[in-house]
Amino acid sequence: MTLILWLQAILDGAVIGATISLGAIGITLTYAILRFANFAHGEFITWGGYAALAALGTVAGWRDVSAWLGGPIAPFSFGLPLIAATIFAIVIAVALALILDAIYFSRLRRAKIAIAAVIGSFGAALVLRNLVVMGYGADPEYFSRDIQIAFRFWPGLRITPDQIALIAVTAALVVSLHLFLTHTQLGRAMRAVRENPDLASVSGIDVASVIRATWVIGASLAAIGGVLIGLTIQLRPSIGFDLLLPLFSAAILGGIGSIYGAVLGGLVIGITESLAVLVIGPEYRQAIAFLVLFLILLVRPQGILGAKA
Question: What span, in angstroms and rounded, lies between the C-alpha atoms of 180 and 175?
Fold first, then answer.
């Protein structure tokens, strides 16, 4: 195999890893602040993608709005209609997350039985996934069936404009989230609750507002991730479930509570899976990714960027 093939695999893995990173950030925030592993988080990705699809194709009157907003913005396959649909997807995913927390997860948290929230999130995931199947069926869906031509750049690698947009959007969101957590009052409150929720509460921090902000941020990033998956690959009701293990692997690998750790973990998982396809074939790509996770955690049990207990 030539060097170009290896470099192309790394590039393709970075694209996959960027998508994983957006979901892993929500996983790590939820676990660090709410203190439970939310296995329904992958379904926010699914609902975000399908909400955007609904806005683009099935909502009454949207086609007239799409025509007014215009067509694709060259060289991308999308334009203002998809950007507007993404905003709609964020609203739907955030509303879904807040409603679930208000009527379901908050009750489980008050019970103070950690396993109840985890098992409850499994149940919520099953319900959300089957609602999508009921609405759209199990067949894959696409924002566009047009084939986008990849362009070549040094030293002969190929990438599509939509993939470049995916990486750029992910990078912009990560930097924006970092600035939010470090330079705003709410962001600093979230960091305080992450460190010690009881101390934060007696210090006058509105923990309920922090919890709502956690759901809003996690669901928003998940919705954007769902749209990006639909843009660069395809939509199917199982995408949230299929991504669940990579999402948790990335969050754990990077270090629970670390935003940049989740991004780094996502990139490691994505690139490892892509390289595994070259070495042993696609059937074992996730096994190799988990082997790398196992080996890294043997050396750093707290994760790559996680703090020692």
Answer: 9
Residue 18 lies in a domain: yes
What are the pLDDT digits (tens) for 174-204? 999 999 999 999 999 998 988 888 888 888 8
List of residues 6+ apart from 220 with CB closer than 8 A: 90, 93, 94
Within-domain flag for 297: no
Number of domains forming the structure of the chain: 1
CA separation for the pair 236, 234 (Å, rounded): 7
Q: 58, 65 in Cβ contact below 8 A? A: no
Could you tell me if 74 and 228 are in contact, meaning their C-beta atoms sit under 8 angstroms apart?
A: no
Structural domain boundaries enclosing 209:
3-251
Is residue 305 in a domain?
no
What is the torsion angle, in degrees rounded to the nearest 10, for the CA atoms of residue 157, residue 163, residue 169 and residue 174? Answer: -60
Q: Which of 48, 127, 123 is nearest to 88 (CA)?
A: 48
274 domain residue, yes or no: no
Both tokens of 167, joined, read: 């990486």
Q: What tens digit of pLDDT does each residue of 238-283 get?
A: 999 999 989 999 999 999 888 899 999 999 999 999 998 888 888 8
How far apart are the C-alpha atoms of 157 and 60, rounded to whole Å? 42
Where helices occur in 40-158 by DSSP H, the ranges are 41-57, 62-69, 80-100, 106-110, 114-136
- The span from the CA of 146 to the CA of 153, in Å, is 22
CB 168 within 8 A of CB 159: no
